[in-house]
Specification:
By secondary structure, the protein is an alpha/beta fold. Helix content is 40%, strand content 17%. α4 packs parallel to α11. The N and C termini lie far apart (46 Å). 46% of the residues are buried. Bound molecules: pyridoxal-5'-phosphate.
Length: 403
């Protein structure tokens, strides 16, 4: 077995330098736990960034991958693919949608949504409509179109010229949005909860107002549910909390229990602008990924996981809110279900490292927002363990600040 030092040196030598990684080589996972190559155990509150909603190596997903890989791993979309058909049917039956386009990532799902929105405008004699309004602090992916859609400079810097036609407005601000809408607007694209941007929830009525505006002006509403869909908030899709339905929704991350997949779900009216030849993906909806997806959705819906997510999420949230009273450097706690952000008055990266030393993986986004995205099967006891560790770390910081 290669030693850790050599592995990390080779990683830094041979892999494109696009990630700043922790000095940790993870080799095994089961449920909410992962193990590093030196045998150390960690409780995982990152879950592959909201991918492993069912926990690591869920037996139903493992079985489905095993079974499908012995039957058929890949064929072209020239042919009908059984698990792809079944997964599309499940997604449509479980949502507002009528048709699904499959791809391999969140960025690709958003690419498909952007293309479909533009095509729909053209098909309906509104060729002048090409602008898409997105939100400040949003995140929609790393391809040229999706960084153009992303309302954060840091992701766009150095990649000019961007795709034209995107406009950014503050999240939760209808007034500014109304001023940004023009006869050129073809769609509004928004995360029902902003994840990467620091876990920002929509204010009451905001998504309804967006829906109403889009309806009145004949603008398409696109929900990017890549991070918060598939049960993360305690409902299958985050927009269900608001009782509002988009014209297009994008999914990826946890859709196939850890196997790469993306999906764009649309109403029949809008989806009909995609016809043979207008869009495609070689791997999109391939047998292996969609078989895993089928198993993942079935497990999510059949095993009471959504209920548990809500219950444990509420417990977690209220424990973190208690900290807000106790530690003055905590500015805000935000979230829904098991996506929770805790905004600090300072950079959170040291806290992530301290947690790791204690055997807990957590994430920090936007510099100062600790983000918690555990598998949805996390137990109250596991949450309590992390909360205890955080209490200790915050205590150390509190003392440091006071002395
Ligand atoms: C992660 C994410 C994406 C991009 O997904 P990739 O699979 O990394 O391309 C897009 N939108 C949101 C909201 C995300 O959280």
């Amino acid at each position: 077995m290669t030693d850790t030092k050599t592995l990390i040196a080779d990683s830094q030598r041979y892999i494109a330098n696009t990630y700043s990684r922790y000095p940790l080589v993870l080799v095994r996972g089961q449920g909410c736990k992962v193990w590093s190559n030196d045998g150390r155990e960690y409780l995982d509150f990152v879950a592959g960034l909201a991918v492993c909603n069912l926990g690591h190596c869920h037996p139903k997903v493992v079985q489905a991958i095993h079974d499908q890989s012995r039957k058929l791993i890949h064929v072209s979309n020239f042919y009908h693919i059984e698990p792809q058909i079944e997964l599309a049917k499940l997604l449509c039956e479980g949502s507002f949608g009528d048709r699904v386009f499959f791809c391999n990532s969140g960025a690709e799902a958003n690419e498909a949504a952007i293309k479909l929105a533009k095509k729909y405008a053209k098909d309906n004699g509104r060729g002048e409509r090409f602008e898409i309004i997105t939100m400040e602090r949003s995140f929609h992916g790393r391809t040229m179109a999706t960084i153009s859609a992303t309302g954060q400079d840091k992701f766009r810097k150095g990649f000019d010229p961007l795709l034209p036609g995107f406009k950014y407005v503050p999240f939760n601000d209808m007034e500014t949005l109304l001023r940004a809408v023009t006869p050129h607007t073809c769609a509004i694209m928004v995360e029902p909860i902003q994840g990467e941007g620091g876990v920002h929830c929509p204010s009451d009525g905001y998504l309804q107002d967006l829906r109403e505006l889009c309806h009145e002006r004949g603008i398409l509403l696109i929900f990017d549910e890549v991070q918060v869909g598939m049960g993360r908030t305690g409902r299958l899709f985050a927009h269900e909390h608001d009782g509002v339905y988009p014209d297009i929704m994008t999914l990826a991350k946890s859709l196939a229990g850890g196997v790469p997949i993306g999906a764009m779900v649309a109403t029949e009216e809008v989806a009909k602008s995609f016809s043979p030849g207008t869009h495609a993906s070689t791997f999109g909806g391939n047998p292996l990924a969609t078989a895993a997806g089928l198993a993942a959705i079935s497990a999510l819906l059949e095993d009471g996981i959504l209920e548990s997510c809500t219950r444990v999420g509420n417990q977690f949230f209220s424990r973190l809110m208690d900290f807000k009273g106790k530690y003055p450097f905590i500015k805000e706690v935000r979230g829904r279900g098991l996506i929770i952000g805790m905004e600090l008055e300072f950079d959170g990266s040291q806290i992530v490292i301290r947690c790791m030393e204690e055997g807990f993986l957590i994430n920090c986004t936007m510099g100062n927002v600790l983000r918690f995205l555990p598998p949805l099967i996390v137990t109250p006891e596991e949450v309590d363990k992390l909360v205890g560790v955080l209490d200790g770390i915050f205590g150390e910081i509190g003392e440091g600040a006071g002395s």
